[in-house]
Here is the input.
Amino acid sequence: MQPRSDLHAFSAFVLELHERSARLDPVALFQWSVETLAGEVGADCCWAGWADRGADEIDVCASLSHNLPEDFDAFWRGIRHDDLLARDVMSDDRAVSFYDRRGGRHTEGMIALSDRYNIGQMAVVITEQEESALSLFLSPYRSGRRAPPLASSEISFLRHALDHVRYLTLRDSGDDPETGRLLVNAQGRVLASTAPARRLIRDRWSGWTARSLPEGLGATSGSSGRQLGTQGLHVERRELAARGGGALFGLTLRPLAAIDRLTPREREIAEEIASGRTHKEIARELGLSPATIRNHTQAILAKLGLHNKAMLANVIGGGRSS
Here is the structure.
């Protein structure tokens, strides 16, 4: 694809990014963005992710790539002390940096990285994330010793596009202010979070800095599934991607509701009751006896401290959005 860094291309990218953000998970959306932006500026390959610039050296907490070998992350970690791009964005707090294999500024690590992967031109674009110690970065690469450097218009294109990616990678649901979402790595490091998620956690863990999952939530990064009762939160986690550097997880948090105390079967029956179905109708639908449905109904009412099916319908109706 020929590089396109004009206003029309930028508008088209942002429009499609918004459309895809409504149906793609954060990692899938970021991966699509990386691949699309690489094509827009004529990069042969691309590396992107979340980096911590707060320590003595840059720490890439999670990354995605396009057209790079699987060993790229591991090799970079071996030469990261020599990474001139990382030095620039740390020491000078730059938002952009470049490396030219034909230029006059080199380190042994940069030469090794360039020659191993046949990269003649490297650049990095950084954008800060609200309420996070991590920066979002995008590194487009052009192959071959004769590769031309990225033009200023192409870098400007990437910087503004990355700001939109940062905003939309994990956005508030809007229609449910009591539900929060986070993106974390396998070690529980928070890569991105929505405002409701930060509020829910800070209300329960005073002094939380949004750096890592607090104690009690940290275990949720280990596998997919649900967790109830952690400081009054219902937590759902889902593995979104697995790379050489570890898995990435999406977490959804909300306050515990009464129906969270029900088993999956009890909740299924409770929702059928709330919809107005009789015991016989529910029994026929689920392949159970009416007596079994009646027993489940009594157990459900007892768990929720309710006296009749009308009260149950009110409780279930209020918890369906959860």
Notes: Residues 51 and 157 are 21 Å apart (CA to CA). The radius of gyration is 25 Å. The chain is about 40% helix and 25% strand. The beta strands are 45-52, 59-66, 96-100, 119-128, 134-143, 180-185, 190-193, 225-230, 233-243, 246-255.
